[in-house]
Design goal:
Length: about 45
């Protein structure tokens, strides 16, 4: 009904240039940003 599919581990662990809570780049991954309520850009 919602059209979802699983994300592979390789894609979920892709580094992204965003802050996710207390996690800062370069440790932030796509998984972290998908499950945070306030991602923000690098200042």
């Amino acid at each position: 009904m919602f059209g979802f599919s699983a994300v592979s581990r390789e894609i979920a662990e892709t580094p992204v240039p965003l802050f996710a809570g207390l996690i800062e780049p370069p440790e932030t991954t796509l998984f972290h940003t998908l499950f945070t309520n306030a991602p923000s850009s690098i200042p």
